[in-house]
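TA notes, week 10

Several of you asked for a full example with nothing omitted. So below is the full record: structure tokens for the whole chain, then the designed sequence directly under it. When grading your own attempts, check the secondary structure regions first.
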């Protein structure tokens, strides 16, 4: 069977430079390079509900993230680009998986364990955890197995979830004699981990993000806030600094110019201006496209729906086969 690359993005909050460098740009590149593979990129909007994302925020983030992927050149004719919620067959598969999944497997899931560890009152530790979060890996496994994905590009934190999907596919295959593809996680070793405005990993959970679409003036303020050391004014600057990672990620192919700048004795102020200019230059053309797309909700909606009929037909065929295999079929 040919390679099928699939990944989901939760629409929670505005996309930031870390999402761009670590997920959006590499996935679009992968779709472009993988002539032999089918690509599936989707907005995991039902997953966003597990974190209690506010309705308006979920809706706005869906809009913003869809426009962002297209602005960076995702070709919806080459890759399937859709919303999880437009493929209701996912829920039917999710239920079938729920019924072969040992509860202990969910007890051990990172997302659930992390939420449990966060509870101050350990006695009622499960009280504030919704069942959506507990069964999060089951919906995710259904996303993956429904389209028989073989390669799932994800960050390290998601690897366990792909292993759950693989384990469940094996259980179903063994139990009913199906032939579900066994997915594997693809963690980009070379993937950059972008630092945020406080120097830690850029993440919505740390509140240190640099959103992709902030105006250049605000961008320069956020970059100015990145802490620097007290190296002497004309001394070379350390290359293990957050600003080096940031500038390198956005300088295009000329990474040597960043090294040269750090060696040259340029001041932190000059380095910050360089980083800001590099980011603005890389975002110039996508920003123009983004502004056009973001105003055209009808176009975004049409794009997300473009290939849903095709996807649902594929999904319905798999579900029909599995229904029959588990014993749910017409009486005559
Ligand atoms: P956040 O940590 O801001 O909530 P998500 O968990 O929604 O971000 O991540 C969405 C995608 O972006 C994932 O594939 C993740 O690996 C990637 N990503 C998030 N933050 C960074 C970062 N600072 N550097 C590189 N990639 C990142
Ligand atoms: N859980 C993933 C995240 O938080 C998003 C996601 C949902 C996903 N379904 C998926 C990723 C299927 C890969 C495959 O980033």
């Amino acid at each position: 069977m040919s390679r099928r690359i699939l990944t989901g993005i939760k629409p929670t909050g505005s996309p930031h430079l870390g999402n761009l460098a670590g997920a959006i740009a590499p996935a679009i590149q992968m779709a472009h390079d993988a002539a032999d593979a089918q690509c599936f990129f989707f907005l995991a909007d039902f997953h966003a509900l597990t974190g209690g994302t506010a309705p308006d925020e979920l809706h706005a983030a869906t809009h913003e993230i869809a426009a962002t992927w297209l602005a960076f050149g995702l070709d919806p004719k080459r890759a399937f680009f859709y919303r999880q919620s437009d493929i209701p067959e996912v829920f039917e598969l999710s239920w079938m998986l729920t019924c072969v999944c040992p509860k202990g497997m969910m007890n051990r899931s990172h997302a659930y364990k992390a939420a449990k560890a966060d509870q101050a009152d350990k006695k009622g530790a499960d009280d504030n955890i919704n069942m959506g979060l507990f069964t999060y890996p089951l919906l995710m496994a259904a996303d993956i197995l429904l389209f028989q994905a073989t390669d799932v590009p994800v960050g390290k934190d998601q690897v366990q979830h792909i292993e759950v999907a693989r384990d469940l596919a094996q259980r179903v295959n063994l139990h009913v004699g199906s032939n579900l593809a066994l997915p594997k996680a693809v963690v980009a070793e070379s993937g950059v981990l972008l630092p945020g405005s406080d120097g830690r990993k850029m993440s919505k959970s740390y509140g240190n993000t640099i959103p992709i679409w902030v105006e250049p003036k605000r961008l320069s303020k956020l970059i100015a806030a990145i802490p620097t050391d007290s190296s002497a004014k004309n001394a070379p600057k350390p290359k293990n600094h957050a600003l080096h990672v940031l500038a390198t990620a956005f300088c295009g192919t000329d990474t040597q110019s960043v090294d040269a700048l750090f060696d040259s004795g340029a001041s932190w102020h000059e380095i910050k201006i360089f980083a800001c200019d590099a980011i603005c230059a890389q975002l110039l053309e996508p920003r123009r496209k983004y502004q056009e797309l973001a105003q055209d909700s009808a176009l975004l909606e049409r794009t997300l729906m473009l290939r849903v009929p095709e996807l649902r037909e594929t999904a319905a065929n798999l579900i029909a086969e599995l229904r029959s295999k588990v014993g749910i079929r017409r009486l005559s």
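Strands lie at 4-9, 38-43, 79-83, 151-153, 184-186. Use that as a sanity check on your answer.
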